[in-house]
Amino acid sequence: MKSSLSPIPANSPGFEFVYVANQRCECGGYFATVNQSLQGSPTHPTERVLARCEACGAERAFVFDISSFFGKFERYDRFQQTEDTFRRAMAALRAGKPAEAEAALREVVDPEKGEPAFAWGHYHLGRVLLMQGRAKEAVAALERAVAIQPLEPDIHRVLARALQAAGQKERAQRHLQRAEELKARFG
Ligand SMILES: [Zn+2]
After folding, report:
1. How far apart are the CA of 113 and the centre of ligand 1, in A?
2. Cα(126)–Cα(58) distance, integer angstroms
3. Ligand 1 centroid vs 59 CA: distance in angstroms?
């Protein structure tokens, strides 16, 4: 059973579920939470989430750093706010307002105000930056997304595009190959 080496930062319980539900198993399936247990010390609480792949049944444990909200009940609903900001960003993007979308997405992945381990936040931030011709910044955002969700073909594909735009052709090629290989494997 695989487990993350360092605790995943979470600023709300809602995000723990979202993080787990967005993780892909090696088989291509997605994980669903089975149970949660509190760990760590009173000054540095962590939560261990046991999850099971909905496709093949493989189990995986995730450990979250919950010290930013544990015991602070007014913070428990905070993911709602992050989701609203994310929706606002997507609406700005559709309306052709990349600067507005960028500002909202930076809030979505903000270490204090948002959820820094939200891969789709980094992914869309990368897309918005690329759209504005800021390839190097796009690469940085997309590399964070790919580190969080390494088995997502779409993230590798857009990272390849950003690398290409930044003049890193070999690395671009590697991520493009990875995207194709994952897509072929998952079907
Ligand atoms: Zn699986």
Report:
1. 33
2. 31
3. 8
pLDDT in tens, 35-45: 999 998 888 89
Tell me the pLDDT tens digit for each residue of 147-176. 999 999 999 999 999 999 999 999 999 999
Using pLDDT thresholds of 50, 70 and 90, give the confidence band for residue 14.
very high
Domains of the chain: 2-74 (2.30.30), 78-186 (1.25.40.10)
Q: Report CA(171)–ligand 1 centroid distance (Å).
A: 28
